[in-house]
Amino acid sequence: MSHNEWQIVKNIGKAGLLVVLIGASIAQPLYLLLGGSGAALAVHLIVIGILLKLLWSVFRDIRVRTQGAGGEACVRVALKGLDDRFRVLESVVIGNKGDIDFVVVGPTGVWVIEVKSHKGRIRIEGGRLLRNEKPFDKNFIRQVWGATYALKDALKRRMPKQLHMQPVVAFSSKHARVGVDLQKIDNAYVVGVDRLIRLIERQEVQRLTADEVERIFDAIRNAIRGN
Q1: Does a structural domain hold residue 78?
Q2: 94 and 205, same structural domain?
Q3: pLDDT at 129
């Protein structure tokens, strides 16, 4: 289960609890329990308002994470198209650096992939990543580089070989128009999911033997267990 899918399950539980609390506060009005005064009624309405606001926030987070989980599922299916020389890890958690959507290890090197499900025209201009001519609210390039550095640090004591890792921001939506050329910003690739396999198979980050691929793959799994 991916990080987004796990968060969806937890949020559904939160939403259920909030619905029960809201229902209970309506069925057994809080202001009556507080004495039935005007002040008690005001407190009662404030409490219901806070619960409704929390419920709306949870529903909004479920919607966003459902979209994200759908994007991750799309990339998961796409990565199955890699040949058997490649190894794929999903939802890689290293320390407190958050969740890496996918790490691919193969003869072309180590790839750190951050999945985004945004729609629209995606392009690079003036050193910025834009969607429909406007910058994103979050810096996805900094995010994927942070994950890449965290993974490098975690493998230093486990791998004698110096590893070169390639960060990638992959847009999963079929409504994301990323363009036909391979694009880089701050040395991180930005691609649509339809070009992800071609990127990984044809662009060499660091040539790795089959034995090295297996050792790196095992080292990453051990780093995950060590958290």
Answers
A1: no
A2: yes
A3: 87
